[in-house]
Amino acid sequence: MLRPEAWFASPASPALPSAIAPAGDGLPSAEFRSLHEEIVRYVRDGESAAAEPMTAGAATSLGAEARALLLRSGGDDDTAGEGADAEQRRRFVEQVAPLAREAGARLGVAPEILTAQAALESGWGQRPLRAADGSDSHNLFGLKAGAGYGGASVAAATTEYGAQGAYATVESFRRYDSAAESFRDVTRLLQSPRYRAVQGTGADVGAYAAGLVQGGYATDPRYAEKLQAVVRGLRQR
């Protein structure tokens, strides 16, 4: 699933209060909602051409503030955690460690690999999927809400990859009540026959990453490479 690269709106978001409260990216909630709704409209209207790479030049029809927010959230290579400092990374690992151990035991996968995957998808918890009011969806693994999914979701402008390279699109992503629920859901997914190749891979991150790619987990052609880089960083620490 590639870490979502833009910002989010719940399809059934309630009206926001007029009080100004900080939201995602440190913006007031009303401003955050206005900017990311502009981004979602921009993508849905087809102004970011599907075949055009996601670059500053491709976002020129957005307002300056929305363009800055989109590009700020859409940095490509945060594989080594450049977007989060050492203390933020330490806190993230500490917070998800028991969840990663439980999921790893069920899957037969080293917990640091699942920690690294959550870090890659969420930018070490610094770039979570957010609803229109800035609230966290707790979706640490970028799982999409497909046709058979009946739970809560958020509509998201995100980056995918095709024959022409990176392009912007709008997808529906799952929304959870907690990080623990996110870990349980990704565990259920990876226990399915589709991802049999990841099961029981232990500490072999190369085999795990190859299994994810084989199962179609992400469209990013460098996903396996990025995941392995994060795991290497965790093990060095």
TrEMBL record:
Pfam families: Glucosaminidase. Transmembrane segments: none annotated. One of its GO terms (biological process) is bacterial-type flagellum-dependent cell motility. InterPro entries: Glycosyl_Hydrolase_73, MGlyc_endo_b_GlcNAc-like_dom. Signal peptide: none annotated. Keywords: Cell projection, Cilium, Flagellum, Hydrolase. Residues 77-235 form the Mannosyl-glycoprotein endo-beta-N-acetylglucosamidase-like domain. It comes from the Bacteria. One of its GO terms (molecular function) is amidase activity. PROSITE patterns: IQ. PANTHER family: PEPTIDOGLYCAN HYDROLASE FLGJ. This is Peptidoglycan hydrolase, flagellar protein. It comes from Rubrivivax gelatinosus (strain NBRC 100245 / IL144). The lineage of its organism: Bacteria, Pseudomonadati, Pseudomonadota, Betaproteobacteria, Burkholderiales.
